[in-house]
Specification:
Layout lengths: L4 E2 L7 H17 L2 E5 L9 H12 L3 H4 L12 E4 L12 E2 L2 E5 L5 H7 L6 H11 L5 H36 L21 E7 L11 E2 L1 E4 L5 E6 L4 E4 L6 E2 L6 E6 L1 H6 L9 E3 L10 E8 L6 E2 L10 H9 L2 H8 L2 E2 H21 L67 H26 L1
Parallel strand pairs: 1-2, 4-7
Antiparallel strand pairs: 2-12, 3-5, 5-6, 6-14, 8-13, 9-12, 9-14, 10-11, 10-13, 15-16
Helix pairs in contact: 2-6, 5-11
Length: about 450
C-alpha cells in the first residue's frame, strides 16, 4: 500500500533517471499517488511556519475573517471561504471546513512583465485583480504576514517542487523536458495555480460522525496537486485495490494526479480520488492542511496525446489500445478555464440544493451563499469531455462569474466597505470580461453535453 517517495534531486546518470521514472510510474499505476519530502524546499523554508501564519488568521474573530470573503473584496489575490461555503462534490454530508485561498501576489507591473504583450486589455485588468491582495490599511495590516509568506511559498513551491515535477511528468508522458512547464508560465494567458490553507474544526460532541466529513470525495482538476497535512485525515482511493488509504508521513508532501494530466495521458494516469474525514470531537485542536494546485495557464487547450507525439512506448501502447469511444472522452481540446468555470456552476447548484434539503445543522458559522473555493471533480475520475447535468458537481478555484439573483446576467462586483472602489471604467472591463467568460461557459456546456 505504501507509495513511492521521490527525490527531486536530478539523477546523476541515465540509469538512475530511468530507475526513478520507473518507480514513479509504478507508484501511480498501482497506488495512484507518490510523496516528496518537505526538505526539498530547503532549510530556509519550514512548512510548519506557513501553517502557523494561516492558523493566526483562522483564529481571528468571525467578523474579522468575514471582511475577506470574495463578495467583500475588489481584489481577489486573497479570499476567505467561511464554513458552509465549500462546494458540494457529491452526496449531502455536511462538510466541516473553512479556507484561505491565495493567488500569487503580483503587482500590476510584475503581472504585465509575465503576460504577453498581445494580451487584451480586459483580461489583463482581470489578471491584475486576481493577483492583487487587500491594499487598504485596515485590510492590509492583518494580512501583511500572510502576503509575505505567500510570496515565499509560491516561489519555493514553484522552483523546488513543481518545476521538477513538471519535468518528471513530461518525461513520464514521453515529452520534452519543458513541454509542461512552458504551458504554466503565463506565456499566452494568466495562470490558474492556487494555494489553499484549510482548517477542519472539530465536530460537536453531540454530532453523528456519519452526518459530517471534512471534504467529500472528489478529484482535483489541474495537472497535479501538492498536499501537506499536519495530522492524519486525508483519505485516498487506492488505484488497483479500490480501498481507502489514509497516508500520513510527517515531513512529506503527497502528490496527486489531477484531471488535466489524466486528460493529457488519455487515462494512462488517472486523477486521484480523495476525501477528508471530519475532525473528531475529541481532537485537541482543528486539523490543518495546505494544497498547491498546479494549474495550466487558463487558455491552454488540452487534449490527449497522439501516439506520434510521445517518445515512450507504454504511453503509445496505451493510446493504441484504447477503443474509439474511450479515446473520444479525451480528444476534444478543453482549456483549464473552460473546465474550471463549467464545474463552478455545477458546484454551486449542488451546494444550493444541499442547503435546501433537510439535514444536520451547519457547524461553526452556518451555511452561506455559495462561493467557489476548492478544486475538484466528483470521483471516480470523470470522462473529461465536459460537463453534463448527471456527472459534474464540480467546484473550482478559477474566476468567479457573479450572477444577478434570479437572472443570468453577470453582476457588477460589489465593493468592500472601506476599500478603494474600482473605477467605473475598470469595473465595466471586469464585467465585460466576466460576461465573456459566462458566454464561453455556456458554449462549452452545450458543446460537451452534446
Amino acid at each position: 500500500m505504501a507509495a513511492y517517495r521521490v527525490s527531486l534531486t536530478n539523477p546523476q546518470s541515465r540509469a538512475e533517471k530511468a530507475r526513478r521514472l520507473a518507480a514513479v510510474e509504478q507508484s501511480l499505476l498501482t497506488a495512484g499517488w507518490f510523496t516528496v519530502s518537505t526538505s526539498e524546499l530547503g532549510s530556509e523554508h519550514d512548512v510548519s511556519d506557513w501553517h502557523a501564519e494561516a492558523a493566526a488568521f483562522f483564529s481571528l474573530p468571525t467578523s474579522e475573517r468575514a471582511r475577506y470573503t470574495e463578495e467583500e473584496q475588489d481584489a481577489f489575490g486573497l479570499t476567505y471561504s467561511p464554513p458552509g461555503r465549500e462546494p458540494q462534490y457529491e452526496g449531502t454530508t455536511t462538510q466541516l471546513v473553512h479556507s484561505l485561498n491565495m493567488r500569487e501576489p503580483l503587482s500590476s507591473s510584475a503581472c504585465d512583465a509575465l503576460l504577453p504583450a498581445s494580451f487584451n486589455d480586459e483580461d489583463r485588468a482581470l489578471a491584475h485583480i486576481y493577483h492583487a491582495w487587500p491594499a487598504t490599511p485596515e485590510l492590509h495590516a492583518p494580512t501583511r504576514p500572510l502576503q509575505a509568506m505567500a510570496s515565499r511559498a509560491f516561489a519555493a513551491l514553484r522552483e523546488r517542487i513543481c518545476l521538477p515535477l513538471l519535468e518528471l511528468f513530461a518525461a513520464l508522458l514521453g515529452l520534452p523536458p519543458t513541454a509542461l512547464a512552458t504551458r504554466c508560465a503565463m506565456r499566452h494567458s494568466d495562470n490558474a495555480s492556487l494555494l489553499r490553507f484549510l482548517e477542519y474544526p472539530q465536530m460537536e460532541r453531540s454530532s453523528s460522525p456519519s452526518d459530517f466529513c471534512g471534504v467529500s470525495e472528489h478529484t482535483d482538476f489541474e495537472l497535479f496537486s501538492v498536499l501537506h497535512q499536519d495530522s492524519a485525515g486525508l483519505e485516498l482511493r487506492h488505484r488497483t485495490g479500490g480501498e481507502w488509504c489514509a497516508p500520513h508521513e510527517p515531513g512529506s508532501f503527497v502528490i496527486l494526479v489531477g484531471d488535466m494530466l489524466e486528460r493529457l495521458s488519455a487515462g494512462y494516469l488517472l486523477a486521484t480520488p480523495h476525501r477528508v474525514r471530519a475532525t473528531s470531537s475529541s481532537s485537541p485542536r482543528p486539523r490543518r492542511s495546505l494544497v498547491f494546485f498546479q494549474g495550466l495557464d487558463e487558455e491552454e487547450a488540452v487534449c490527449c496525446l497522439t501516439s506520434s507525439a510521445t517518445r515512450r512506448k507504454p504511453i503509445a501502447e496505451h493510446l493504441a489500445s484504447l477503443p474509439a469511444a474511450a479515446l473520444r472522452r479525451y480528444e476534444a481540446p478543453l482549456t483549464q478555464r473552460e473546465w474550471t468555470e463549467a464545474q463552478e456552476s455545477e458546484a454551486r447548484e449542488r451546494l444550493e440544493a444541499k442547503k435546501q434539503a433537510p439535514g444536520p445543522a451547519e457547524q461553526a458559522g452556518g451555511a452561506g451563499d455559495g462561493e467557489p473555493s476548492a478544486h475538484g471533480s466528483p470521483s471516480p475520475s470523470l470522462p473529461l469531455e465536459g460537463p453534463s447535468a448527471a456527472s459534474v458537481p464540480l467546484p473550482g478555484g478559477g474566476r468567479d462569474v457573479p450572477r444577478v439573483p434570479g437572472g443570468d446576467v453577470p453582476a457588477a462586483p460589489e465593493m468592500a466597505p472601506g476599500c478603494a472602489p474600482l473605477t467605473i471604467e475598470l469595473s465595466q472591463q471586469l464585467g465585460r470580461a466576466r460576461g465573456r467568460q459566462e458566454q464561453a461557459y455556456n458554449e462549452t456546456s452545450s458543446l460537451y453535453a452534446a
